[in-house]
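Appendix B, example 12.
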Amino acid sequence: MASSAIGAAREAAATTREAAQIINASDNEYPYVVAGARMFCDKGTHFRRLDLPTCHGAYIRDKAMTNEEDCQHPDNIPIFGVCLSGANPHEDMQYTGSGSEDFLPFENVEFPIIGKRCCPEVGKWLNAKEDVLVDRKPALTANCTCVCRNGGIIGFVDDGQGV
């Protein structure tokens, strides 16, 4: 992928994040994130969904709520396609596509996509709602982000509630 395409991918991720914040904002409150919420990494090429292999016992609209410690790879956070971060120390890879992709919304995706192997290494989610606990830990909201030590910022496109 040419450097102009990488720049376009980064710009699209920033635009996606801004749009998600506007859509999810309601009087400075953010909706709670449930299992299956769509996520993005601003250095990745694909959207992914937050997984919750074991429910914490708290539900909203019959969907499992999440907390700030639901940040493990690969249990909760899968790979985001190809990593476009220059800080990523992993080996280069080439992605040829499968035809049923959920790409970040950047134009002119050209195959193969060349970048680093995505291997999310994150700490707990930031900005969790401290006054609402899920399994004795702060609840995730659509405003939460986490930082990957390979250079990406992971955030939510939607809350997963489907409303």
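DSSP finds one helix and eleven strands in the chain. The CA atoms of residues 5 and 108 lie 8 Å apart.
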